[in-house]
Amino acid sequence: MINNLTSRRRQRPHIVVIGGGTGLPVILHALRRKNADITAIVTVADDGGSSGIIRNYINVVPPGDIRNVLVALSNTPEIYKKIFQYRFKSSDQFFSGHAIGNLIIAALSEMNGDGIFNAVQELSQLMMIDGHVYPAANDPLILNAEFTDGTVLAGESEISAADKTIKRVWVTGVDGEEPHAVREVVDAIMEADQIVLGPGSLFTSILPNLMISNVGKAVCETSAEVIYICNIMTQKGETEHFSDADHVRVLNHHLGQKIIDTVLVNTQPVPDNYMDHQKYDEYLFQVKHDFNGLRQEGCRVISDNFLELRDRGVFHNGSQVVEELMRLTSRPLSWNENEFN
């Protein structure tokens, strides 16, 4: 007799996407159109912009990444999403720069009084989310980094602005204690058919989640295939001069074992002089390919045209990436397989 969990997985693969920043909603928005059971685990270590201001005033988890993920997975009418995403203009001095959704998330968190997790679950129902949105932790986290010159900094925005080579990162609670994810986060990872990391900033969007001890342990122990969507561009203050293999090495090194089973790599060149580097000033050069290095990391490589060019910027084509993710849910992993499409 097939149990309910096995039956559900065969009907709708359970895909857990872990990350933050602007790349995560692109994948989730495309994934929502597919027959998948989606769980998004979202970083709570952001301390910049509207999120950082709200965090500093009322000591709640920074809501910006959570807000964008909720919108990406919402089945509400577009006008509701636009209202939720609306950001007050600079002329509105009191609300300047704040998104309405950030204020709503902060308000619900304060009303609940027991952290942000339950607040996000209530808001998920209001926004008609088909799936789950889980903050990686129930309380605000501080991202810490050690640089190759031996110096140490705390705070995502400080780390990104330091313009130094990062050696390692870790997270702490605001009280200095070691943070832990709630049980639902760990259970989602352990019960998943597929774990997707990225796309997103390696040190400030992806690793902060994995550095929560019970989250990293679950990713190491899950039977799910762990897929990394490699960034298309290197990032100032984080991954300057990185190859695709360097990204995977950093992930594996931080977790203490080779956790990445499959890596998706874009091989479509970005046209010369296309990108507006003033508008997208944190992105530097296209990530170089090191397929031998990726093989040494023990992962299957799937390379294809995952590039989308718009608004003088470089992005992942969410539909193309998700088509590949769905194909992989029905295809068993072969450790000796490398694909170059």
TrEMBL record:
Required for morphogenesis under gluconeogenic growth conditions. The chain crosses the membrane at residues 12-31. The lineage of its organism: Bacteria, Bacillati, Bacillota, Bacilli, Lactobacillales. One of its GO terms (cellular component) is cytoplasm. NCBIfam families: CofD_related. One of its GO terms (biological process) is regulation of cell shape. Belongs to the gluconeogenesis factor family. This is Putative gluconeogenesis factor. Keywords: Cytoplasm, Membrane, Transmembrane, Transmembrane helix. It comes from Liquorilactobacillus sucicola DSM 21376 = JCM 15457. Its main location: cytoplasm. The keyword Membrane applies. It is found in: Cytoplasm. The keyword Transmembrane applies. It comes from the Bacteria. GO terms for molecular function: LPPG:FO 2-phospho-L-lactate transferase activity.
